[in-house]
């Protein structure tokens, strides 16, 4: 039995890119196992963009890692000693292991560790990738949020990353035209040659925006967004009416405060649904609205107010009034 | 019969606020009526924020008004002469009248003019307000996009405007707690005293953000957004998990190019649905995903790739690698 545990504690919050200086490496004594606990040696640690958010003190979907705490991370560990009713020596488990060599199971963790099945031909690391949180993320992002129809065009950013590469492949399985955006020729070659994406765009090459347009001749129906910023804006600008954006990550903004991304970060963290809306789409149902509005109006439940400007010549002034807040209720020009 | 028609033509595109200088006032001869046409005298013109978009050469949901064209506007007109089978003298009609004194019906307009019913007790101008496009917009925005549940908190920006004032009232009818944001005490008093909003926040007063928070003790479930910018960001920051944003207008950005608003403008114009997504919400269904992913993996339809970094001490470097694009596929630390 080992008696010390090497751990990386969060020492300081990064201001830009994460560096070693943000961590303290310490050797902590391993406690005696109590009843109901097991000790596991960590075999693999998952490294995910969201960890950059956990390191900051920004509001997130999980509380920040406190300074002095072991850095939070998902991982796979092997049980080496157990007084836990569910785990025995040799079991492989998945959970929040943290950046350390050993982890105690049954020590009050919020989400219990989960035993991993041994599946012939499936390497253990698959449970951090395609069969792990990233694969599950891609699965629900595509099947439940995007809900693609065969023939639709799906664009995935950070397409050579863990989640993007699975999201794009699921899009292909479901019959989409799939275009990936990634940084570098090797990544792009992998996407098209091995994963059979219909096209891959290297955003580090000049002219990539035109290439993206050419790769999406029918426009873009779905954006699986991992990046934000200029990449997202470029994709959005080519989207078709009534397209869907699965806002899964905004990695371009994790290392600096980007005010242009602040709202989208809120949309992501709070899982908001933002729906662009122009009433023209409802033209066939205008009658239904007018009937209900008229009924509410007649019943005194709705009140209507107008600000009236007199004369055609003052119509331009009226238009300006809208933006200087001089009207209350509906602004009308009477001729 | 009149023989000249005073018209306001778009002379130049505004750079900031609309001004009279953007228009040319001309007197054009009125043509003889042909068979199938009617002449109507314009009685009321609608003035709407979206007209500012039509005046720019930005991509929109309708083409820009061309320079030299009569300024596009909705309005109500009275038929004064007719060779049209559907309209007779005295009929009141609604449609794209434009900024002019007279309009020709049956002259190739894309959306036909619509005859207005005479409803006792309902003033004609209601067909530009509560029973017009703005009322219809509020109706579908609330009932079809937001779909409020009784007891939910709805925040409306530009709440004393034509659409916002109706949207908030519909929210009240449907049982919401409704909080309006408007600029000025008179507007706020109207919202609470006459329209019975639960609270109204004057964003021109210091401390308005704290007042908004206090007025929404249960957080915000629905944002009916007409403004964008700082007002939208403030509302978003107080929204509850899984809230809905009806993106109906971004009036704060219509008079200047605001890069932070560009993406939201695209979401609005293209009626996109942007959904923030964090896989934790799907925890009860993880098994379903893993089963399907495992099946695709076994069938060779999904490929998994890892970039492996060796040793706990390199875990911080691995985290930085994610943001400098050095990994392909899933990034893992092996201990």
Structural notes for this entry:
- 2 copies of one chain form a homodimer.
- The first copy, chain A, has 335 residues and is α/β, with parallel strands linked by helices.
- In chain A, 28% of the residues lie in helices and 26% in strands.
- Chain A folds into 3 domains: 4-126, Medium-chain alcohol dehydrogenases, catalytic domain (Quinone Oxidoreductase, Chain A, domain 1), CATH 3.90.180; 133-276, NAD(P)-binding Rossmann-like Domain (Rossmann fold), CATH 3.40.50; 283-334, no CATH class.
- The first copy, chain A, contains 9 helices and 15 strands.
- In chain A, strands 6-3-4-5-7 form a 5-stranded antiparallel β-sheet, with no helix packed on it. The first copy, chain A, has a 5-stranded parallel β-sheet with strand order 10-9-8-11-12, sandwiched between helices. In chain A, strands 1-2 form a two-stranded antiparallel sheet.
- In chain A, helix 2 crosses helix 3 (162-173).
- The first copy, chain A, is elongated and about 90 Å long.
- The termini of chain A are far apart.
- The interface between A and B is large, with 140 and 140 residues.
- Strand 15 of chain A pairs antiparallel with strand 3 of chain B, so a sheet runs across the interface.
Write the SSE topology.
The structure is a homodimer of 335-residue chains.
Chain A: E1 4-10, E2 23-29, E3 38-47, H1 50-55, E4 74-82, E5 92-96, E6 102-105, E7 114-115, H2 133-146, E8 153-157, H3 162-173, E9 177-182, H4 185-194, E10 199-202, H5 208-215, E11 220-225, H6 229-237, E12 239-247, H7 259-269, E13 273-276, H8 286-298, E14 306-310, H9 315-324, E15 330-334
Parallel strand pairs in A: 8-9, 8-11, 9-10, 11-12, 14-15
Antiparallel strand pairs in A: 1-2, 3-4, 3-6, 4-5, 5-7
Helix pairs in contact in A: 2-3
């Amino acid at each position: 039995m080992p008696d010390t545990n090497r751990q990386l504690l969060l020492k300081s919050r990064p201001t830009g890119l994460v560096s070693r200086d943000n961590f303290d490496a310490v050797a902590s004594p391993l406690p005696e196992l109590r009843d109901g606990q097991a000790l596991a040696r960590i075999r693999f640690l998952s490294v995910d963009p969201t960890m950059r958010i956990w390191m900051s003190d920004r509001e997130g979907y999980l509380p920040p890692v406190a300074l002095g705490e072991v850095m939070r991370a998902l991982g796979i560990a092997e049980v080496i000693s157990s007084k836990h009713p569910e785990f025995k020596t040799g079991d492989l488990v998945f959970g929040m292991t943290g950046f350390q060599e050993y982890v105690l199971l049954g020590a009050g963790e919020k989400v219990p560790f989960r035993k991993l099945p041994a599946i012939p031909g499936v390497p253990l690391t698959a449970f951090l990738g395609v069969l792990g949180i990233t694969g599950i993320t891609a699965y629900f992002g595509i099947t439940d949020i995007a809900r693609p129809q065969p023939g639709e065009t799906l664009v995935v950013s950070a397409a050579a990353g863990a989640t993007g590469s699975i999201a794009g492949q699921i899009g292909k399985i479901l019959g989409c035209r799939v275009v990936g955006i990634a940084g570098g020729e090797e990544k792009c070659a992998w996407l098209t040659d091995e994963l059979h994406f219909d096209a891959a765009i290297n955003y580090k090459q000049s002219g990539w925006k035109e290439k993206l347009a050419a790769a999406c001749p029918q426009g873009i129906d779905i954006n699986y967004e991992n990046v934000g910023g200029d990449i997202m804006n470029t994709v959005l600008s080519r989207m078709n009416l009534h397209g869907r954006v699965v806002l899964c990550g905004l990695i371009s903004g994790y290392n600096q405060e980007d005010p242009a991304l602040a709202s989208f970060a809120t949309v992501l963290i709070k899982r908001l649904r933002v729906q662009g809306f122009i009433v023209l789409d409802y033209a066939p149902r205008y009658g239904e609205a007018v009937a209900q509005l008229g009924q509410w109006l007649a019943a005194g439940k709705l009140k209507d107010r107008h600000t009236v400007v007199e004369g055609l010549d003052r119509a331009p002034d009226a238009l300006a009034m809208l933006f200087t807040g001089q009207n209350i209720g509906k602004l009308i020009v009477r001729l």
